[in-house]
Structures
1.
Amino acid sequence: MKFQESESLELKKSTSELKEAVIAIVAMLNKHQRGEVLFGVKNDGAVVGQQVSDKTIRDISKAIADHIEPKIYPVIEHVAFDFKQCVKVQVEGKEHPYYAYGRAYIRVADEDRQLSARELEKLILEKNRDRLRWDTEVCAKATVDDIGPGKLKSFLKLSGLKFDTIPNTLEKLNLVRGGKLLNAAVLCFARKPEKFFPNARLRCAVFGTLDTTFTISMQDFYGDVFYLIKKAEEYILEHINIGMRLDGLLRVDVPEIDPEAFREAIINAFCHRDYREYDSVNIAIFKDRVEIRSPGLLYGGLTIASIRKKMVSARRNELLAELFQRSHRIEKWGRGIKMILEREPATEFEEIGTVQFIATFKRKNVETPSEGFLGTTTQKSTQKTSEKTSEKTSEKTSEKILAAIKADTTLSARQIAEMLGLSPRAIEFQLSQLRKKGILKRIGPDKGGYWEIV
């Protein structure tokens, strides 16, 4: 029999490593509220066994009782694997954070890492969030006068509900308590939610390379959560390539990333993000991918593997999710991730540290027609359409070119084209226009010369 250490299983060769086992128990409890330790199994998974007596069991129980706070009550069993004597310790507990020898630890992969003061504070806050959800807290400074009636009426129309008065409508939607507005009401319907929540913001950026070293454009948006979702969708469509296909005799635009897929990821980012974090939802568009970054990790013990394989959901913001569902923006049964993967199978999900969840969509090369795109006889036409769409919908291409040249005056047209994700022909045309307007000047030959911004 072979075992493998994980975030919820620790292997110890013998009880000589009892102190390390106690630390591992605390780390697993703080991460998953459960864990298991096997004594008599080496960390490579090989069963070696050890001597097991009543005293062995008592020593393990005493170490756990003496050195773990708050108290836990483990299940300790004398077991056999491959006819070798071992000890299995199973623990569960929801009173985290737990401490071993006066210190708190967290499980990361198969290692136990001591928590920093900030991480410990977040763990304590996470424990109490079910009782103190952000979206159901009262926004003390907001009043009914801060609510935009037009926003409320638009929501009701989408939800198939009738408008009465603002106070009565908010009451019916469970968005007030004791006559005070809840955070969810302000975030969704206030004229200026950012007045109360600085993180009611969307931050977008386009980068000219595979990382953040060269920024082409950056823009921040403020407003209610439904407005920010709309702006996020528009921003991505403005800055990715648009190909085309024929549907009978009609030309149909085909974005390189399925709009329904990234729209679902955007909605998830705003609906399930951690609003206690000051950071905003961020859209980062690189040459090869689009990242949708949301503050906060997966909630309720969910993992990347579980959301990819099963239709499960755990709602950090239950009231906010209810509003999204009423207006038909999300489904109740957690089909969002499945739909994303059906439409964009290469989508990747990742948790960064303890602060951020990222959905990454791979960009496609529309210069190489894929299924559904026009064939090679119309490839040039498709490419031109893509370029025109990008130039019309994105910020002025000339501004991007000037920004690139300002950073490096020796860039060639081909290098600029690669950075901006456009064809050399389109860049040469823009450079020609800038020179005609007297904005840009070429000093020296094509090879060995440089640009000068007049």
2.
Amino acid sequence: MSFGAYVLEFIDDVFTLLGIDASPLIKQIIASVGLFILFIVIGWIVYHIFERYFTRWAKKTKTKLDDEILRNIKKPIYFFVIIIGIYFSLELLTILENYSETLVFIFTILEILLITFIITRVVNVFIAWYAERRSERKMSEHILFVLKRIINLMIFLFAFLIILYVLKIDLSGIVVGLGVGGIAIAFALQNVLSDVFSAFSIYFDKPFEIGDFIVVGDYSGTVKKIGMKSTRVQLLQGEELVLANSVLTTTNVRNFKKMRKRRIKFNFGVTYDTSSKKLKKIPNIIRKIIENNELTKVDRIHFKEFGDFSLNFEVIYYITSKDYAKFMDVQQEFNFAIKESFEKEGIEMAFPTQTIFLNK
């Protein structure tokens, strides 16, 4: 015996006990209303449990993920209980027996849609939580929006197929049609889809973010916007460069924003008539100049080679600033200091010269 039948039997016993003679339809309506009220109370209790206990428990945890999930599912679960209550209440009415199969289909579809809605709400919470956890800076709200819509569309498509299965509709033709249509659309939008998937690749892999300074081929600039089809870069010259996302995922991209320190190499030469004593002083002179700057650290300084017209030195140092302008300021400071030090020591910088011997 079903739960509704027990309720109907209880109502019948109450009427008999009170000596009231009522038609079966009246008893069914009263039992139906009573059962519906009972499910409203059950739904309220479930909602109250979520609101009173689960929500308080979630607030004690470190993450906000459980808070958002509970906030998004407590009302749909309450409506789910109400829908079940409506179904069982209508099931008691014999006047609807001829429509019982239709009612089963309707309420099954409603339950599937409501469960699908709950799943999509939870998925949206997970996507937002994942995006917030992966990056302090929101890379692109548009990408997140499209990602949510694509996943939700897939969930609703799956729910649609389940509904067709419940309605006992042959799915073979529909699945084949969706497959052929999907292939045709994919071929027609091949380039667009390539850029879209590249946008997701950029979002999840994060080779660069908004505000990063990047170099792509002969172009260098700051990333201003990352969209579904293209990325916009503000070049150093001032103009804006629009690059397809598929290009950025298939070419080498140099990201200077992620650079922690810069390795600098520069060369200079002194004249051949510089004495050995002065040559040996040069590494110490350069080392002192570089070490006086708190942003730089010496790697190595060497008398590298005998050039065509100069004695060549090679210097390598590191600067902890990733700002290119700052690096140029420091290098300029070193150049001035080297020139002044060499002038004090009487060391002459080399320049291209050529000596011609004439045979009399």
